[in-house]
Design brief:
The complex is a heterodimer of chains A (140) and B (178). With 140 residues, chain A is an all-alpha fold. Helices cover 69% and strands 0% of the residues of chain A. Among the domains of chain A are: 38 residues; 42 residues, no CATH class. The radius of gyration of chain B is 17 Å and the shape is globular. The chains are: A mainly alpha (140), B mainly alpha (178). Chains A and B meet through α1 of A and α2, α3, α6 and α9 of B.
Chain lengths: 140, 178
Amino acid sequence: MKKLEDIPKKNIFDVPEGYFDRLPEIIQSRISVSPAPVMIHSWTRALRYALPLTAFIAAGIFWYQNYSSSFSARVDVESELASIHSDQLAAYLDDHELTTEDLVETVNWSSDELNDLENAVYFTPDVTHRQLEEILDESN
Amino acid sequence: MDDNELLSKIRNPETRHYGFNLLVRTYQQRIYWHVRKMVIDHDDSDDLTQEVFIKIHKAIGNFREDAQLFTWIYRIATNECLTFLKKKRRRFFLPLEDVGKELSLKIDSSAGISEDEIQKKLQKALLTLPDKQRLVFNMKYFDDLSYEVISEITGTSVGALKASYHHAVKKIEVYLTQ
């Protein structure tokens, strides 16, 4: 087997004459078209990653504080209303020009609540038409 | 002028242009020959060498001094070579052997290559190796770089590099015997 060490180390490639004299000028002319390099210190590189992270955390804290304060405000209103007596509430509503329809529209009723309300308002006893006529005759 | 002086000249806005010119003059031959041994053709090597220095110019601001300037420059050149060969294969849907054959033909037909037959045969033997193994062989055999430096350039462990080099030598010797 032929050994690699038997072969002398030689560079068999060649370049055109004066190639390495011209190359720096060619590179410089290509570089002068592109913008100059910006030297970045290690702390500015760290800052590049740290700033967005800090902004993100700050936004998160801001959002959390707003959310928790609005949540506690909602809880406070409900407990305040619960502490007011029904008569006082009714008197307050009488003094204001709010119709029952206005009040009903402000509430998001569930279908069960609406059914209960309808039953309460339009409740009809379980009687036949004849029984109803008899009741009416008696009352007359 | 050593690498630290070169860097301080490049970092000074008043001497930046001069400093970079010095860097090109210092490293152009090493980079050109490193590239030429990988891509064989002079025009391709010329294009790639220019691209390497333009990339160095753009990225020198990000150069961290925990690595040597020399290994950083070599790493950029190495990546450019590997990307070039990969693109060449993709563009023509060529398998590894066919790119090797194409480059072997260039060894026979291109101007600017010695007529020394045994040296040509050695270059053809190298072209039968995978790109990364050829790269390691070139850096160790022709450039006389230590395994530690090659490890820094390629990001491969010294043990893996030693194994790769010895395996490459065996394959080359088999080819030379044929």
